[in-house]
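Write out the 3D structure for:
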Amino acid sequence: MCGRLAEKGCLITGSTGIAEATALLSAKEGARVFLIGKDAASVASLIGRIRAEGGHCDSRVADLTDSAATEQAVEAGAKSLGRIDALFHVAGISGRKFGDGPLHQCTEEGWDITLDTNLKSAFRLCGAVLRYMLKQPLDANGIRGTILNMSSVLAFSPESHHFATHAYAASKAAIIGLGTAMAAYYAPYKIRVNTIAPGLVRTPMSARAQKDEELLKYLTEKQPLAETLIDPAEIASAAVFLLSDESRATTGVVFPVDAGWSVS
């Protein structure tokens, strides 16, 4: 590795799938990592792996649907890291089991839980992190901080047969709008804000899809560069680029990593 995140304080939410892959890669690239995750066991396991490889990692177990817990977790992260150079907000859910689906079938519970977990958590978390970033001095490259939020290819390239989950799509589309507005406002303060939009990735959240033979066959054409679900390491590689100074002049972008989904 070439140290693309050397000595940067990186706050990452989540501890499995894309968050796990990005935390591992960030640590290898020299970052001091702070995890905020809901599942204590997976957080502890990931910390152990990072430290075993010589990386720096601390954590806080917290539910990001809780405003007080979010503020406390960010405060703990800021103290541990010294400064928050980068935030990658990965944590989110599929609301299918709560009642998400086509709008005429979507329940209020499914809508509320999905929007609260995916969108309002970004409002809470980004707000808390920005309050720290705005007080930070510029780094050696003239940047005060970088934020990367997680959207989905479904926000702008819907698939009506296998993925008719409209609350999820709405939450991920709103994250794009939020990120663009944030990027415009905070650019004069030297804070970058970008959004990553993956296709279907092999994570715990996609466990249902991984067992669906019809869907797997469909992916051979829908995600032709992978011909199956995308490996989380592919998303992690793009995320590290967007968090690093390699993308110093980049803000307000939506970065699809979808193996060709949106153009197929």
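The longest strand covers residues 191-198.
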